[in-house]
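Example for reference:
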Amino acid sequence: SPASLGWRPTDMPRKRPGPLACGQCDFTTNVEGKLRLHQRCHAAGRRTFRCSLCRTAFTTKATLMRHMRMHTGERPFRCHFCSKAFVDGGHLTRHLRTHTGERPFGCPLCEATFKRKDHVTVHLRTHSVQLASI
């Protein structure tokens, strides 16, 4: 049972009804953590890193550098299987799973495994439907 696995109904990811907006600028996102990270750039005395081309502000230099690759077209992370290139190393890691078949993310309620963590979140909703009918 879900309870025997240490799972609680409160562990179920909840879908937001709409985009979350920053109260100080026009930034929006569907991810609460991204909004909190963004809002750090508005904190008093917080150093920001601003794109010289589009004026977008970032809280870390690394994030700005990754953003700059969008403007320059630089894609330094290349797949050794098919030569597809990516702006971000995390995107390459995710892509490599299409070649290796690796499925590192498992459902805590059944044996299902997935290539992406967000696919587990979507899958967990099937269990909420099953649990609601019990």
The first strand starts at residue 20 and ends at 21. The mean pLDDT is 83.
